[in-house]
Specification:
Blueprint (H helix, E strand, L loop, with lengths): L1 H22 L61 H6 L11 H14 L1 H4 L8 H4 L14 H5 L2 H10 L13 H16 L33 H12 L17 H13 L4 E6 L10 H18 L7 E5 L12 H6 L3 E6 L1
Parallel strand pairs: 1-2
Antiparallel strand pairs: 1-3
Helix pairs in contact: 3-8, 7-8, 10-11
The site of heme C has 22 residues, from helix 4, helix 7 and helix 8.
Length: about 350
């Protein structure tokens, strides 16, 4: 009798206690899990899960890439402008390296209809469901066809897509740099409608910088005379950088050529200039990712010190585009140390 009562009460008390204890997770004990495979993947996660040991001190299932590694297709991409108001203003002179060919614009349309239309509307009239249903206030301009967007430099749109602006978030994780330009060309095609000028289908991004199809373009639209263009291009071809270990430093023999460029740009304060730095090292080398931009920046600093308005100057790196040769001979290396200039209005 007594034993029975004890058991009865004991069970009544013990059951909830047992169930509580066994369900609660703590420390390394996950507690009772329903379908644990749903929580913890059977496959190894990259960069985690292994216990550290002598040969794998970081306990990772996958090694981190070597410093300076750049993902395939991202070689030319080091976006130089800071994510702030100043960077936004400077981005005005950041120029497309993807031409506004019909096929690129068509791909831009495809991407736009995935990532943008629900706010800006299929035709860029800010009548997508999010704006229409007042889930979020729309921009101050009514449509892409407004002068604001027509006159907005492509570089600023690039900055907005990359970093976001106001209530529009960054789209950089959805659109790679090439795709951003394609979407931008499509935005401009909606803005200009029938007046939009497509680039010829063969114009590629590689160096020739064919017609970029909108008012903001590169050296194909060099605003001066052909003679001036030839003179400036020749001067720039003489600008050279040192090899290792001072490869970010310009050779002093470059100064007289740059003086000529500086004088020309000072005489034309309405010209905008992008300096494109190339690199001549293997991409896995440390510091390679920023080398092109470092070199372009050196040139810009020099031009500014000679009185060129800094707001007219911007830098870009071109690590993959225009890389010449297999970088095995010293001649190849020299050609990849070059900086190029793009002048436009
Ligand atoms: C969630 C809604 C939303 C989505 C999605 C969105 N935008 Fe926007 N967009 C905005 C808002 C809001 C602004 C106004 C930002 C401001 O000026 O404060 C804006 C501004 C812009 C501007 C003007 C930028 C400038 O520099 O003034 C452009 C161009 C633009 N968007 C294009 C795009 C493109 C292209 C996409 C797709 C890749 C996109 N937007 C996706 C909400 C959105």
């Amino acid at each position: 009798m007594k034993l029975n009562t004890l058991l009865k009460y004991g069970l009544v008390l013990a059951l909830p206690a047992i169930s509580l204890v066994s369900c609660v997770s703590s420390g390394d004990n996950p507690g009772i899990e329903y379908a644990p495979n749903m929580y913890t993947s059977q496959a190894y996660e990259p960069f985690s899960q292994e216990k550290s040991f002598d040969y794998n001190p970081n306990g990772m299932t996958m090694r981190l890439p070597v410093n300076g590694t750049i993902a395939r297709g991202q070689g030319g991409y080091i976006y130089p402008h800071a994510n702030n108001g100043e960077g936004y203003e400077a981005s005005a002179s950041y120029t497309p390296w993807i031409a506004a060919t019909e096929s690129n614009v068509a791909e831009g349309e495809r991407l736009y209809n995935i990532y943008c239309w629900h706010c800006h509307g299929k035709k860029g009239k800010n009548d997508g469901p999010i704006f229409k249903d007042k889930k979020m206030p729309g921009p101050s301009w009514p449509a892409y066809s407004s002068d604001y967007i027509k006159e907005l430099p492509n570089g600023k749109i690039y900055h907005t897509i990359t970093n976001g602006k106001g209530l529009m978030g960054s789209h950089s994780f959805m659109l790679n740099p090439e795709e951003r330009w394609k979407v931008i060309h499509y935005v401009k095609s909606l803005a200009f409608g029938d007046d939009f000028k497509y680039a010829a289908e063969h114009s590629s991004a590689n160096g020739d910088h064919g017609d970029m199809g909108s008012p903001q373009t590169s050296s194909a639209n060099f605003p001066g005379t052909p003679e001036e263009k030839a003179r400036i291009m020749t001067a720039m071809s003489k600008v050279d950088f040192k090899g290792l270990p001072n490869r970010k430093e310009m050779k002093s023999s470059s100064h007289s050529s740059l003086d000529e460029v500086a004088a020309y740009l000072s005489d034309h304060p309405d010209y905008k200039t992008t300096i494109v730095g190339h690199i001549g090292v293997t991409l896995t080398e440390e510091g390679a990712a920023t080398l092109g931009i470092d070199r372009a920046t050196k040139v810009i600093n020099y031009l500014t010190s000679k009185g060129v308005k800094s707001s007219n100057l911007s830098a870009r790196s071109d690590a993959s585009i225009g890389r010449e040769g297999e970088i095995t001979s010293s001649e190849d290396r020299k050609s990849n140390r070059r900086v190029e200039i793009e002048i436009y209005k």
